[in-house]
Amino acid sequence: MNVVLITGGIGSGKSEVCRILKDYYGIPCYNADSRVKELYMTHPHLLRDIEVALGVSLLDADGRFMPSVLAERIFTSDEDLRLVESIVFPVLAEDFENWKSARSSSDVIIESATALEKESLAQMYDKVVVVDAPFDVRLDRACGRDASEKETVMKRMRAQLLMNRISDGYIDERVDYLLENTSDMASLKRKVEEMIDKVFDDKKVIDRKV
C-alpha cells in the first residue's frame, strides 16, 4: 500500500487537496490531527498516561477533557511537548495501522500539519506532498476561515518553521511533490490531477472527474 502524506502550512489548502483526492478519486484519507483529538476521548488510557506523566489533571469536575490545559503545557514547554508526543505517537501509529488494514485501496492519504517535522512518525508514510502558498495568501485564507484575530493566526503560522522554510524556497529532500495552491478551486483541481500521476501508484482505478 502506497501511503502519501499531505502536509502544508496553515491556510495552504492541504485539507482541500485531501477532499479532492477523496471525493473525486476515491482515495481514503486519514486525518492524523483530527484523529489525535478523538483518541484523547476514546482510547482507554491515553489521557490517564499523559496526566501521570505531566502530573496534572486534564479532566474537569464533570470528567470532561480540558484541551486548553494540555495546550498550555505543551506550547510553553518543549520538554512537556516531547513527553506528550512520546505517549501519543505510538497510539496514533497503532490506530493508523488498524485503519489502514481495513482499507483495500492501493493508495491512502495521511493529512497532517506536523508529521513531516516529527521523525518518529516517518515510518507511517512513503511519500510526501507539501501544499504551499505565499505567507500573505495563507494568512488571508486562515483568517477568513477561522474568523480569528490576525495576530493570533500569524503567531501560529510563524511557529510552523519547516513549512515556512519550504515556502521560502528551502528544498527538503523528503518532499516528493510541492503543490502551489495560489489560485482558484478549478486551478487547484487541475494541479491535483497533475500531481496524481507523479505520486500515486494505482492510476488505473482513478476516476478522473476533475
- The amount of helix comes to 40-55%
Question: How many DSSP helices?
Answer: 9
Structural class designation: alpha/beta
Radius of gyration: 18 Å
**N- to C-terminal distance:** 24 Å
User: What percent strand?
Assistant: 5-15%
- Biggest sheet strand order reads 2-3-1-4-5
Give a concise summary:
This protein has about 210 residues and is α/β, with parallel strands linked by helices.
What does this structure look like?
With 210 residues, the chain is an alpha/beta fold. The protein is built from nine helices and five strands. A five-stranded parallel β-sheet has the order 2-3-1-4-5, sandwiched between helices. Helix 6 crosses helix 7. The model has no long low-confidence stretch (mean pLDDT 90).
What attributes does this structure have?
single chain; alpha/beta; 5 strands; 52% helix; globular
Question: What is the topological layout?
Answer:
Elements: E1 2-8, H1 14-25, E2 29-31, H2 32-42, H3 46-54, H4 67-76, H5 78-101, E3 107-111, E4 127-132, H6 135-146, H7 150-158, H8 161-167, E5 177-180, H9 185-199
Parallel strand pairs: 1-3, 1-4, 2-3, 4-5
Helix pairs in contact: 2-5, 3-5, 4-5, 6-7
